[in-house]
Amino acid sequence: xxxxxxxxxxxxERQEALKKQYSPKQAEKQHSKGKLTxxxxxxxxxxxxxxxxxxxxxxxxxxxxxxxxxEITYGDGVIVGHGKVNGRLVFAFAQDFTIMGGSLxxxxxxxxxxxxxxxLKMGTPIIGMMDxxxxxxxxxxxxxxxxxxxxxxxxxxxxxxxxxxxxMGPAAGGxxxxxALTDFVFMVNHTxxxxxxxxxxxxxxxxxxxxxxxxxxxxVHGSKxxxxxxxxxxxxxxxxxxxxxxxxxxxxxxxxxPAVADDGSTPDINEKLRDIVPDDxxxxxxxxxxxxxxxxxxxxxxxxxxxAPNLVTGFARLKGKTIGIVANQPKVLAGVLDIDSSTKGAxxxxxCDAFNIPILTLEDVPGFLPGKDQEHAGIIxxxxxxxxxxxxxxxxxxxxxxxxxxxxxxxxxxxxxLGGDFSFAWPTAEIAVMGPDGAVAILYKKELAExxxxxxxxxxxxxxxxxxxxxxxxxxxxxxxxEVIDPAVTRKKIISAFSALSNxxxxxxSRKHGNMPL
Length: 518
Ligand code: HXC
Known about the structure:
By secondary structure, the protein is an alpha/beta fold.
């Protein structure tokens, strides 16, 4: 090649122009808001020297713009490409707010669509780092159609490759559906927000004053709406957490999750497990204390920690292999199942099932939350989602009934009749149609009404019910659970059961798809 020739010179000039496009002033603007630039984010995400950028020189379409102007820049406000994250191939895009507010025009969208298609073809995860004012106003319907193509690709890649999203600035308008359609959403506290209509519209329509953070900040979506699953205080920690998270997941739905070496520091038999559940069945304890004693040391990655904390979900490792954990949390609302925990659990289970991640269920649930609020808001419809998700899941599924397993909640939480593979119970388990108080009140209504000392009579009957019915032994004798186990051997039992299930294969009849109650 002639290195002094015209085309080589043009090549160098273009490289130089691309570098100059990102001025220190632009970077400073991002930094002053506590945000990094798109290039800095890409730099943090990928293993050093592995990122390969695609389409760095594409420019916005030179279509006529009737209103405002489109800046003609290299890359059109989004960096796309592939590289290695912890040594594994990943595709990613990072929107650049310094270029027209990271707004999504026709070309910007085409770049994202291109890597979405490549990630799907290669069977690799895709990560979107969002920092955008949404559809580019000047490009009108072309940018809307760009969003539609992105949504379409996310939906058609769903369950085939993991799709993760990090919100690192605004995500406004219909653009929020792009993250909402992905598997897991990470947000940065105080610098990111998502809403369908912003504070200005809220003021105009409802005459309410609300800040962006109050309306759609990370804490709102992490704890109230459930849109965001993981929240961190700055971008660096968010990206580091995302990299750690990715290590639990397979690259696609035909691979198994990657295994790591188990350092052997969690004992397979641990007598401390016998002391966690209080003697008083109405006393709370922290289910996470049990989780920590049965998984590989420090391997729990909790998802949606702040949303519906009465149900704990997350990934962990057992002898180095990824499992998904779904656990009632007696510490919050006595671990009851309500609308939010049902949808949280259902979505998590479906992710695990799509990506070959075995599920461990730890059960201590008094039932579904009663009351007008829940009934009117559709606990029947939403509870059915959890039922559907468990029953549909074909990955290995093990339950350990720690304490309460009453009524419909016993069925829902991965009972054997719902297709659960192994079901163990601790001696503290209470398996029955309903709790002692309710059962006594219904069965002895007349007798209690006629009793001279109803309180004493009720106490006796509750005691009798506990001894006779609310225990694991009847279910054990009838084969509805597989074994009552000493809590100390729980890890050993689970490891052995998952190992027995490692070649589990279920043939499901062909159909277009089930009709999950949505
Ligand atoms: C074109 C945009 C833009 C947009 C921001 N900019 N949003 N350009 N289209 N959607 C430009 C601004 O003009 C400005 O350009 C630069 O980006 C930075 O914006 P600022 O407003 O100065 O920044 P800031 O004060 O931080 O406010 C950020 C913001 C605000 C909250 C995102 O810009 C905003 O409200 N934008 C509009 C949000 C929105 O409603 N988008 C449409 C959503 S509807 P200069 O040249 O001054 O630097 C949608 C439909 C999707 O997305 C449909 C899917 C089905």
